[in-house]
Amino acid sequence: MENLPSYICIAFVLTTLLTIFFFYEAAGRSKTTLIVLLAWITLQALISTTGFYTVTDSLPPRFLLLVIPPLLTILVLFNTSQGKDFIDRLDVKVLTLLHVVRIPVEIVLFCLFLYKQVPELMTFEGRNLDILSGISAPFIYYYGYVKQKLSQTVLLAWNIICMGLLLNIVVYAVLSTPVPFQQFAFDQPNVAVLYFPFVWLPCCVVPLVLLSHLVSIRKLLKY
């Protein structure tokens, strides 16, 4: 990724580490959780620096190796007794605050668009309204969990709507990636996620954001 200013990469590295920090806090500062997350992003960093993900004409697409393991992990967490015990111990208040990371993520995506690394539709000037989730998260955290002035219905609705915004941009991002099933942005595909450190977006940041919503929804429906 030539000519890309280093501050964009640094900003995204810090955003990823902040996401991990929030989840580490939500998990009661579990060292095991921290080690697993750091080991996963380190592995993906090493793989991506070899240019492995820049080969986009293979079947199945190599890009799937970034997203399938986290999704399988989420499925295991929600469908095993140990997994359920783990997610039930997570602090929903911290998971709600975690969503503030979506603000710097959207700013980084906009910068990447300016340098022709992602399509406009993946930014807040296009079809991506996910920044609203990040902006609203501190208010939901404060009024919902600190002041306890928001009902469970409101909290549930916020999580469902924001998860919808997340899934919306995920669909556009995946279908804009230069792989055999690409459907959008042929003039400027989503190439940033094929390179370090932006591989951490689909393999770490997005899965943790998704998991945070799913855990919150589970607890709100359960209690």
From TrEMBL:
Q: Which UniProt keywords apply?
A: Membrane, Transmembrane, Transmembrane helix
Q: Where are the transmembrane segments?
A: 6-27, 34-55, 61-80, 92-115, 127-144, 156-175, 195-217
Keyword hit for Membrane: yes
Decide whether keyword Transmembrane helix is in the record.
yes
State the superkingdom: Bacteria
Protein known as: Uncharacterized protein
Q: Which species is listed as the source?
A: Cytophaga hutchinsonii (strain ATCC 33406 / DSM 1761 / CIP 103989 / NBRC 15051 / NCIMB 9469 / D465)
